[in-house]
Amino acid sequence: xxxxxxxxxxxxxxxxxxxxxxxxxxxxxxxxxxxxxxxxxxxxxxxxxxxxxxxxxxxxxxxxxxxxxxxxxxxxxxxxxxxxxxxxxxxxxxxxxxxxxxxxxxxxxxxxxxxxxxxxxxxxxxxxxxxxxxxxxxxxxxxxxxxxxxxxxxxxxxxxxxxxxxxxxxxxxxxxxxxxxxxxxxxxxxxxxxxxxxxxxxxxxxxxxxxxxxxxxxxxxxxxxxxxxxxxxxxxxxxxxxxxxxxxxxxxxxxxxxxxxxxxxxxxxxxxxxxxxxxxxxxxxxxxxxxxxxxxxxxxxxxxxxxxxxxxxxxxxxxxxxxxxxxxxxxxxxxxxxxxxxxxxxxxxxxxxxxxxxxxxxxxxxxxxxxxxxxxxxxxxxxxxxxxxxxxxxxxxxxxxxxxxxxxxxxxxxxxxxxxxxxxxxxxxxxxxxxxxxxxxxxxxxxxxxxxxxxxxxxxxxxxxxxxxxxxxxxxxxxxxxxxxxxxxxxxxxxxxxxxxxxxxxxxxxxxxxxxxxxxxxxxxxxxxxxxxxxxxxxxxxxxxxxxxxxxxxxxxxxxxxxxxxxxxxxxxxxxxxxxxxxxxxxxxxxxxxxxxxxxxxxxxxxxxxxxxxxxxxxxxxxxxxxxxxxxxxxxxxxxxxxxxxxxxxxxxxxxxxxxxxxxxxxxxxx
Length: 671
Fold this sequence. Notes:
- The chain is of the alpha/beta class.
- 42% of the residues lie in helices and 14% in strands.
- α2 runs antiparallel to α3 (41-54).
- This is F-box domain-containing protein.
């Protein structure tokens, strides 16, 4: 019987290697690596083998060069250009006459030559400093294009792009963790797990680069970390372990944004306290509860944003009044530590009230954002802000209101002289006892003739009763013509305002327009409404948002009401109007006739699928439509969810809509 034990072969290889010198063992190992594919687990084996060879002190220059070239080839095939460049230079240092390293180093690789190769200084051209100043005004999408331009701009664009670094510890999905882990949907679970694995591998590669490349690490100014899953399998703990080694390398890090559950956020903050105690900006988004911030020791923050969510006790969270009170107390303690340095603050805590104003120095703040409750016991917040906010440029309030504020806006109508961005969103009443019918009229008078105001948001939710209780009607729109520099407008459309008049009240300078309140107004003839609205719409409008408009087709809205816009948002869906993008080639008539039905049907399907994300009973979810009944001459491209969630501001900038958007206080690029 012929029986072969594969372990005998392994033992024989081991016995033979024991008889070889270290240099011969390295030569044998390098020969074997030529048969290994550089991917998956083999990638780790490959890297460890090369590193072990290079640590041999008696390694010959020929084998040193051979090991470096072997790893450089593997890295080039996977896109690791910087690491390959270092290996090729090291190979030439060990063996200057090596022809293979010379050929690889000078190969006409677009990325290597344009991003890494030193550029000769030619007289008569702009200096690097001038190019850097030019590039600093470009949107990120144009910077990505510059990576492939044979000019010093490509290197500068690379450095500017990586000033902000994003790490995704898991993929983004609207599906709950329980549904992902369920055996009832194996294909869905497998796809999401594959997505999570890709993000984990990408994060590990980036952090490895940060650890090994000090020049790359020194470029990073802002770090954004996203994790949407709890650490059940320990994968986040592994990534946080790598992060703990990478953070000290980011010597110029100034701002950190963290979106993660509680169990993923606190370990990162503990590391940051040690590696970057003088952090400049910190933004926290906690999707499954709130943090105890009293344990944090940061004392030099200039920008702070905090968003907490309360979950039910069954989900492991708490929404009790005592818990909300303790969270507000810990937040006040943390803010008092940074009282002297804070310049911008954003608090979003729907079940809590604004922290004590004594914990912050309102006179030093330039941006205030708050989403939460304003009960009758918190009536002192607004007068304190109006009295002491001399330097305020941005005031953003989204509140459940239960106190009377109109006397303060009347008596302090000349306060906030440098106000440029104003937002007041009344989500409803706490105890249904709100009765301040002079509130919106007093705010309209407070804002009247403010020539420096750039964006304005005045919305009232909660139904017809809240509209009456706050005094919101067509007269509020009368303040708009006096705001001659307004670029962005978000406002509730009152049912007593004729569309033919309302459109002409909108300032001609507006680039971004958001209208809501159509559900409360019970709009019955949306096409007729758009037809009457269209003549008065500013010709320079670029972005239109209709939160609850009763039409299923975005192309219908564009064609009948806003033919000039580049971007439209309906519900949670964004659509780029390609026809209005400069340089868009368009489509011929035959192409239009062939594809228009498919385009219209896709818009109908997307609107129908988004009905799960729309409020129950909204017109968008209940209007039926037949895709064969509407053919549009407009090409619309729907945004992916990742673009809308992570890169919306970048695309706003590229489409020219960004000046009409109020500052996002969760970001750090404040105006």
